[in-house]
Design goal:
Helix content: 40-55%
CATH class of the largest domain: Alpha Beta
CATH superfamily of the largest domain: GAF domain
Distance between the termini: 58 Å
Number of domains: 2
Structural class: alpha+beta
Order of helices and strands: HHHEEHHEEEHHHEEEH
Number of strands: 8
Radius of gyration: 22 Å
Number of helices: 9
Strand content: 15-25%
CATH architecture of the largest domain: 2-Layer Sandwich
Length: about 260
Amino acid sequence: MAERKSAGGKGPGRSYTAPALEKGFDILEVLADAPGGLTISEIAQRLERSISEVFRIIIVMERRQWLHKDPDSDRYAVSYRVLDVAFRATPAQMLARAAAPVMFELAGAVGQSCHLVIRAEDRALVVQRQENPGPVGFGIRLGAVVDLATSCSGHVLLAFLPPDQREEVLAILRRPRGLSRARLEQRLAQVREQGFEMQPSARTEGVTDLSHPVFGFDGQVAAALTIPFLVMIDGSQRATLPETQIILRDAARRVSAALGHVAPQ
């Protein structure tokens, strides 16, 4: 049987296209970089397509609740349905289920909020969060994108990757100006040696981030369990920074155990 040529005439096999589906993916991707949302005309302009091309796709995506329209500004944004589907279709669901009760106890014990972060190629995402049970706290929203190169959680996720996988990520990872790869690798080595990361927040002044790795049954790092630690000056502090680090370590180990991880003796 003769080989079929692709549409481009290069190599075996056929090239399949689904223009409407591709436009839908393009719309999701362009809106992902526009937290304030975009109008239909702005979406069309960024995608270099006509308004009529994107209009029909957007209306269908809105009807299926993948997009949300602000009635006051006519701007469209990605809805939480995207996060919900991704959450249910990936191991993040099992991870969050195992972590949720532990995180609830953790937040209550230390009086701080906490969140769970997983790696998504060269970025990281918050897939579970638990607010501080007290009247005042600091937290990061569910679904927030976390920078691997600069964040506490990112350092943990990178540090405990197998060397070959870490090399692949570092080869494509964008680093801020002034942060060399050698300097980042040195920091990751320190994280592996001490077993956790602690550093001033890369986003907020006055916050110290603490993060410990969570491991899956296969021994691979599955997530980073992180606390943005705030110092209370009203006498409501439940745990010091060193105490919180130990409690966080134990919580991460409990989540790992719930995932089937057996710590080496």
